[in-house]
Design goal:
The chain has 624 residues and is an alpha+beta fold. The protein has 13 helices and 21 strands. β18 and β19 form a beta hairpin.
Length: 624
């Protein structure tokens, strides 16, 4: 390692967490020299980069979450195409992950400038207050070292940065409260015709579980995408009235409003949906911030005398047009403060490779994801419900996000899908292929058939919370490294009966919804599905077997748990490492539990809390 340059702050990862922290430090501590190291490609401010993403998406045969984005052999991203049922003799090694099982981990993330917000759906739900006290309230998992009230002001700052579109009067359920007079930056994204039809059709339906009755209601979901600004919005810090939507990076007139392009995942073509490039674009206006892409971190080096992070070791790479090796170099850099702000799995991988944060024994442990069970079917003939229009989902059913039932089984969120059977059956492409190849259709007959079929297709995603478990963890091994010589994550993953019991209840609620709406179910699970499972349960003194399939939600959480001390956790409530006081390990990996909300908003709120803590540390240099 020939070069060793010192910065005030070194941030590893240029996703939403790293971007928010960099932006905040640049605004409030203007004298700080900040370095960001990103494993993947991208500049964070060039509109041409994003146009290339769009072109790659249009040309991709499989429209997977990462299909528009660069996947370097030297900083690979996991793919949803890799996992399948794990054989008894495992492991499964044909993707970036090494899957030890017994259940495959079915989610991915994006290793490029902008991170996984490049392909997220844009759902921005707050957590429920009881989610922070799962152990105390329901006897499972652990409690967070902070409360919903502690996080409230940071939620408001995150909702401004992302530009959340929602209505307070629809979101104040299950104990979720808002500051008096608060409104979201933008009014809610209009609910789809399908969702409006469901809301009307489900009126009066009550679902009974464990002797309790729950009203089945359809309400809009908070969205991180541009809609109609709320003129009554008041900025949390400046007091400025109103909100101005942020358009595409490098082309601000584009993406001022959602255009309903219906491909939010994997990419919003106009950037009406928020992505971290928008925050990073503002952060990079700071001349003291340097962003280095194609610079994956290998290890952080710990000083044995002080216990602090002494330096960060990373490698740079370039590739030719064929993606082959060119000019790989090793570097090291010092930072007074070091922040690991990569994906939860990547953060843990670096800590494991560095033999860092060892006192709690929790590094890499408690890997979690939302386990998505999908049910799908046809609305009655002649009932066009407008599938394949607008964002992927703009409404859900909140009834099972929290309750006393969590003592016995998983809570779940209900996501209503607007894109027909796209997820479970790869429609409309598969509909066309089957009509042509199997039914020999062509011409007007084919056109009429496709219209009639696709207009009635419907699906629901049932997203189960997953308990933290030390049996779900990542590890590393010298046998498994990428082409740059960095470790590949080894995933050890299984399901608990807690989640399976939640899925069983979700299937019963699905049946009630389908019956009420006269939906003809086409739900079908196969034992060859990657996420197939069976659950033996007792019903009316008889043993039965519930069969289903889980999918990954892309909500990678856990691996460097937040907690009160070094014996039970890796970081504190500010995401500072207990073992090394100049190290912060930030992001979804800090979540002690998962609950039912998509994690991005809470991750962003925690990033603001972390940034405030670092600002305090540098208060002698900061502008008050």
């Amino acid at each position: 390692m020939k070069d060793s340059t010192e910065f005030d702050v070194v941030i590893v990862g240029a996703g939403i967490t790293g971007a928010i922290i960099a932006k905040e430090l640049g605004a409030k501590c203007k004298d700080l020299n900040i370095l960001m190291l990103e494993a993947g490609t991208g500049s964070g401010s060039d509109f041409k980069d994003y146009q290339k993403f769009n072109d790659q998406y249009y040309n991709a045969w499989a429209k997977t979450p990462n299909s528009p984005f660069t996947n370097s052999r030297f900083a690979p991203s996991p793919s949803v195409l890799s996992p399948h049922n794990i054989k008894q003799n495992g492991p499964l090694t044909d993707g970036y992950f090494v899957q030890e099982g017994p259940f495959p981990f079915l989610s991915n993330y994006n290793r490029n400038v902008g991170g996984t917000t490049l392909h997220w759906l844009g759902t921005t739900l707050r957590m429920c207050p009881n989610d922070f006290q799962l152990k105390t309230r329901y006897g499972h998992g652990v409690d967070w070292p902070l409360t919903y009230e502690d996080l409230q002001p940071y939620y408001r700052r995150a909702e401004f940065e992302i530009g959340v579109a929602a209505e307070v009067d629809e979101q104040n359920y299950l104990g979720i409260k808002f500051k008096k007079g608060y409104v979201f930056p933008m009014h809610k994204i209009p609910q789809s015709y399908l969702e409006q039809q469901m809301a009307e059709g489900l009126k009066g339906l009550m679902f009974e579980d464990e002797g309790e009755k729950y009203p089945v209601e359809v309400i809009s979901t908070p969205q991180g995408r541009n809609g109609m600004p709320n003129v009554a919005y008041v900025h949390e810090e400046s007091g400025k009235l109103g909100f101005t939507p942020v358009g595409a990076v490098g082309n601000s007139n584009l993406g001022q409003r959602c255009e309903g392009n219906a491909n939010c995942v994997p990419i919003c073509p106009v950037q009406a949906k928020y992505n971290a490039l928008k925050t990073l674009h503002d952060a990079l206006k700071n001349p003291k911030l340097t962003l280095l892409n194609q610079s994956p971190v290998s290890i952080i080096e710990i000083d044995s005398d002080t216990g602090q992070v002494d330096c960060v070791h990373y490698k740079t790479y370039q590739t030719d047009d064929n993606g082959q090796r060119a000019n790989i170099q090793s570097h090291s850099v010092k930072g007074k403060i070091v922040i690991l702000a990569a994906n939860a799995i990547e953060n843990a991988k670096i800590l494991l490779a560095s033999d860092a944060c060892t006192k709690s024994g929790q590094v890499g442990k408690n890997l979690m994801d939302h386990l998505v069970m999908i049910t799908w079917g046809f609305f009655p003939k002649g009932q066009d419900i407008g599938a394949y229009r607008g964002p992927g989902s703009t409404s859900g059913m909140p009834l099972m996000r929290d309750g006393e039932f969590r003592k016995n089984r998983s809570a779940f969120r209900v996501e209503i899908g607007n894109w027909g059977w796209n997820w479970p059956a790869n429609t409309p492409e598969s509909t066309i292929v089957d009509a042509v190849d199997k039914e020999n259709m062509f011409g007007q007959e084919l056109i009429d058939f496709i219209k009639e079929q696709t207009s009635r297709q419907f699906r629901i995603g049932w997203e189960m919370e997953q308990l933290p478990s030390e049996k779900n963890y990542i590890s590393i091994d010298n046998k498994y490294k990428d082409d740059l010589g960095n470790y590949r994550p080894i995933i050890h993953y299984r399901l608990n009966n807690y989640e399976k019991e939640g899925a069983l209840v979700a299937s019963k609620l699905s049946e009630a919804v389908f019956d009420k709406l006269n939906i003809e179910s086409h739900t079908c699970y196969k034992d060859k599905d990657a996420g197939y499972f069976e659950y033996k349960y007792k019903d009316c003194e008889q043993w039965k077997v519930f069969k289903s399939t889980f999918n990954g939600a892309g909500h990678v959480v856990g691996c460097h748990r937040m907690g009160s001390n070094e014996k039970n956790s890796v970081v504190d409530s500010n995401q500072r490492a207990h073992d090394h006081d100049n190290l912060f390990v930030a992001g979804c990996g800090s979540f002690p539990t998962l609950a039912t909300s998509n994690p991005t908003l809470t991750m962003a709120a925690l990033a603001y809390k972390t940034a405030d803590e670092i600002v305090k540390q540098f208060n002698s240099k900061c502008d008050e």
